Amino acid sequence: MLAAALRDGTVARRSTFELFARRLPDGRRYGVVAGTGRFLEALPHFRFDDAALTSLAEFLDDDTLEYLRGFQFRGDVDGYAEGELYFPGSPVLSVHGSFAECIVLETLALSIFNHDSAIASAAARMVSAAADRPLIEMGSRRTHEQAAVAAARAAYIAGFTASSNLEAQRRYGIPAEGTAAHAFTLLHTGPDGPDEPAAFRAQVEALGADTTLLVDTYDVTTGVANAVAAAGTGLGAVRIDSGELGVLARQTREQLDRLGATQTKIVVSGDLDEFAIAALRAEPVDSYGVGTSLVTGSGAPTANMIYKLVEVDGIPVQKRSTHKESHGGRKQAVRTSRPTGTITEEIVYPAGQPPDTAEPCRALTVPLVRDGQPVAEADLGVARKLVASGLRSLPWEGLMLSHGDPAIPTTQIPASHR
Question: pTM here?
Fold first, then answer.
């Protein structure tokens, strides 16, 4: 496309591309915007070096290669702040510049937002299901090594309290937590068979009594007894990773209390998703470790976002393809609410033409980039607060895990052709 636009002279036409989702993944009632900070971090460094140009020279002409050699995005970007909720048609990102500048960014924008928003949306459902109990992200061994870091960041934005990924802690300051694996218990096996007490004693000696001991390698009841014997009643926590977690959590709580370890917490893990977490809400579980389901979006590994040209030289343009229609024109959005703060509607309108509304409303579209330089800060703490506030603002049915319509409707005010 870039080569053809350079050849026919359309390469510099002022364009606006928008990133949005036509619909939410099946069963979802809201989405969470995540990846904005990573996009803003990547944008100034998105260049084509000699190695990239050598690869592209296999199929691109010299004029196109020369354009890419000097490529640097110098346009503007508006969009939703990281941590905002989004719904079908929400203009999550609006990219303004020459056609060439905007089209080259398509895969960068989509790959970041589709991944991170999918993870954050799944994580928010888990946070809601956990009802204020902490969740630890533990999915690094179930996804690509770079995706693992991004997933930990997205989960933290959505309300997870910590991650087992140390690179996420180093790069983004996300609190790091973890426990021993079954391998450490199995390591302590001799000619006479397993020696779980020795494994627990070694861990306590190295890490202190406040550590978390994994008690389900052999038998949970025996494991709990061995754990308290090794650490005393000040044992920090026990983790259960298999079996009927609700039943085992009740039995473990009763056993810990009988042994005097009344402050020892119970951590559960093992193929948890938002539905399993919700089912454990009434059980004496203190925190959850979530891996595979989280880093795969809990059945929705992509946010289904698309990146479409909506305006050329001030002229609205839109697709008319069946079931793939788009809405033309540069857009902004506001969200209305009741006086109580419960949101009622999202209104997407032509940029610069805000709607009249009697209800309280809040602007969603904010400046992110000006002249190629980020103007918005990527603050994970602010994003976490925005997600928490958004979840509190949803109508009660919007937090349901069952299939249903989006939590609020989206109204599109069409652009007029100028």
Answer: 0.94
